[in-house]
Here is the input.
Amino acid sequence: MNNLEYYKERFDRLKSAKTVDRFADIRQNAFNDFSKTGIPTSKNEEWKYTRIGNIFNKEYRSLIPDVVSAAAEEALSSVRLPGYEQANELVFVNGFFNQPLSTIRSSDLVILSLEEAAVADEYREFVKKNLGHSHHYLKDGINALNTAFMQGGLFIHVKKGYAVEHPVYIYNISDAGAGNIFCQPRSLMHVAENSQLQMAETYVTIGGSDSFTNQVMEVVIEKDAVVEYYKIQNDAANASLVSTTHFRQTGKSYIHTVTISLNGGIVRNNLNIIMESERSEAHLYGLYFHGGTSHIDNHTIVDNVKPNCFSNELYKGILNEDSTGVFNGKIYVRQDAQKTNAYQSNKNILLSDNASVNTKPQLEIFADDVKCSHGCTVGQLDEEAMFYLQSRGISESTARSLLVRAFAEDILEHIKLDPIHKYIEKLIVKRLKKGTT
Amino acid sequence: MMLTFVAMKTETAQPPHNNGIKAELSSIESAVLTDYKYGFVTDIEADSAPKGLNEDIVRFISAKKNEPEWMLEWRLKAYRHWLKMEEPKWANIKYPPINYQDIIYYSAPKQKINPKNLDEIDPELRRTFEKLGISLDEQKRLSGVAVDAVIDSVSIGTSFKEQLAELGIIFCSMSEAVQEHPELIKKYLSSVVPITDNYFAALNSAVFSDGSFCYIPKGVRCPMELSTYFRINAENTGQFERTLIVAEEGSYVSYLEGCTAPMRDENQLHAAVVELITMDNAEIKYSTVQNWYPGDKEGKGGIYNFVTKRGICKGYNSKISWTQVETGSSITWKYPSVILKGDNSVGEFYSVAVTNNHQQADTGTKMQHLGKNTKSRIVSKGISAGVSNNSYRGLVHVGKNARNARNFSQCDSLLLGDRCGAHTFPYIEVKNKSAIVEHEATTSKIGEDQIFYCNQRGIDTETAVALIVNGFAKEVMNQLPMEFAVEAQKLLAISLEGSVG
Amino acid sequence: MLKIQNLHANVEGKQILKGINLEIKAGEVHAIMGPNGSGKSTLASVLAGRKEYEVTEGTVEFLGRDLLDLDPEERAGEGLFLAFQYPVEIPGLSTTNFIKTAVNEIRKYRGQESLDAVAFLKMMKEKMALMNIDQSLLSRPLNEGFSGGEKKRNEIFQMAMLQPKLAILDETDSGLDIDAIRIVANGVNKLHTKENAVLVVTHYQRLLDYIIPDFVHVLYNGRIVKSGTKELALELEEKGYDFIKNEIDVEEQV
Here is the structure.
């Protein structure tokens, strides 16, 4: 299915199946874009180190998923994130938002399908203006592919002044029990003025065949809102993922993201933060700790459009066995964005002979009164520290675990949602017990 | 270019450093020049090929040079490959399409072929070089730097040949090398930059008309700086020179390169290839002060500078060090690289790139770590002013077998004015767990408090900017041989004139 | 030498100096004291020509010229020197190179030939001996990584090299221990002659134990509210600034 004909046929089928399509135009434009660019190859600068051609060489059950599997319900109970008893839970199954499996606890949270929102008086304009905004930043065919086949999407409105007593958990379940599955979850979120939101998201594949998830979530954050977002990836080796999260700070606001990636097949994260309002603040943290033959790619964009914004980014990677890591961080400072402070750092440790890492921090600056820096390192565990621990009677493997744990701590400490923090710590400890050499 | 060739008789031939205050200070005292100083045109009769490029032109050039058949074949192979290639588009530069059929690929000053000695050089040409501050008269000079001068496409004369020959050093024009040392040329030419390497390298291979060749035999430390001076003179001409330096086991050479061109409204193309090879324990230090005409304040004219420079540390414990000061050209596309093949070999890249007005530079380096215990160091200082764009693009690659590779990169950008851009694109690829790679980059502007402090001490703003910029670039400037350092400092100041306040 | 009349100055629209009058003659040492925020450093900055400060009223005459009409570097050329409270760092620029540039720029301003390297080195050696300053300090990048004491000594060394007619020392004692103050003060005293003048701006009296002022002025709320001899400094030290504040505030209320 690596050829455009295949998608053309699927696309036509989708179009004819829809008698009324609120998104006909955007869908068609996206498909045209996709037709032009196709599946990105390593010649595309943004995909230089991540080859996804093979993912598209497989046969998938359907691009237009049929009925929701009963196994999904069972799956949900096994992947629920700690603290779910108090959380609003939003569930996607095979890329479709699933209302019956979801639980809404907060009345200030409006949950609609994208189609409903597109015709609702109070949301119509918003959807029109913001749905597909990530396209301006991600011009590869992958982003367009999601838009072209957008179905079962979710609209979330966080009401003005919402103070989160219940966090929002989002689950993406892929059922690969009856053959390979290709899912394309889509959501659009509006965080209104002066609200506070904590959000965590995770992914799970059930069944023994392969899954590929191509997800796009777009979030608009208004004045004085505070958003925390935790992305947790610990899916199986048969699960590949392109996960795009696109934040627009349209009002002076605060965003705090932590991306934790521990396992998967080929995993690509696109995290965009568009700072469109003065004095906005963004924190981006990431930890990737991979082994096996998995491939983890974190692409981030921080676009300083307006003056006086602050951003700080720290991504740390630990790569073991035959895994490969990729980091690409872009900081743009537009001509108007004077007094920007933007920092970016990427640190990597290679634990095995066959692990490798490619990192590309990037600054593009068009304003002069700015303070920007980036740095990246690739290295090993500090031998001096290893020796020090061993000289105190600690075994080599324990010493190694301790140091890896310490390396990861810089990121873990930024997970402010307590049950999630504890959960990730547990996962890391478990991973370390499996051995890091 | 006022190259004051200072005496440098050094038995050990250690690269000199300019930490004497004398050198530093003269740049600040230097007269303030408002325009490109080297923009004159010399009226010399030239022997040119017709405009355009085809196999006949390649044959014409080869015939003009009296080349052997194998050389012609080599060129034709490159040309045919070039036809199949596409111009690279990935760099952060914008320019209208180049019409490759509108360029003259060969232009030689009409003069007696092969001057037996430097006295036979056309007096008009000699005056050109005197205007540039380069004397080809050996006896008039105090001592020190052996010069190969290339005007438009042809080497005009190489000085100090005999003295160098006594040590077994070959320093001559590339045309001469093809005739006199075919075995060396066959062995090494395109061994580092294959003719198929990239679009501009293929073009160069097809049409290059001259350049310098330098061969340092085993165990010889070259007692003087070797230098090539390039100048584009004729109109509508491209310059395609080729430089090849081979340093045999245990040898050392320091090589300098300078370039200027007249002011013309049309853009002119310069596509050079430089190849360096070091054997066991050998070292090549290659310094460039690039001051091609940058175009006028509105961005009209200027040189398109598309250059492929690459060295290979073939031998154990060998070293290649690139230093460049890039102030000229309307477009610079250049990535002097080192392939660290020999165990324990060392690669260095020190760069200052200044862009002002409408200039665009996309420059950096590649350090390919292949051998064990290889080390590389990158120091890049970009200075942008006006409405220019200045990009650092660098690759550090650590191969699977490159145990204990070390790299440190520092890329700093300084912005003068709020309409210019500074960009950093580092690529770091590590496939060996014992590697330690560190990259740091910062972007800043000149502080108003720094300028006020200088003002308070009686220093005007323009001079203050020059001082601060030179300070910013110092780590790189220190790598230049002294006579170039002085020149380079002046160039920085001149390039940035009128960019602040 | 320096005549300030009714000087008013703003910074970012806020009025800091509200009518300063002061005259300094050749050979004199003046001290300006005052509590934090009284405008001491503003006065120093305005005299040196820092552009964030806007003069809204008044005149300053320096050696017969209108000082306010001159650019900062021209003021330096005329012989005005400011020892900065926070000397600025310029990475990569050696202190020697900086000073040589300054010396020759000022010479150029005065229509004098610039010093060649030999003459400059000779002068520098003399002043180094006089100021007791070490060569190693001068070969380092300007102020970069200097300790507080080193920075201030470097300021005074520059003063020695530039031989100003009027030196303004802006809080030169701040952040220095007593030994460092003594060294700096000795330097200033060695440079003081009948032909030049010194204006010491300080919060504390302790620097004035070493640089003995002929006149002491107290600056408060943008104006000189009291002038006297060095005894005034001692009185301030003993009673603190509050006594002046109270006196003035009471007067103003009346």
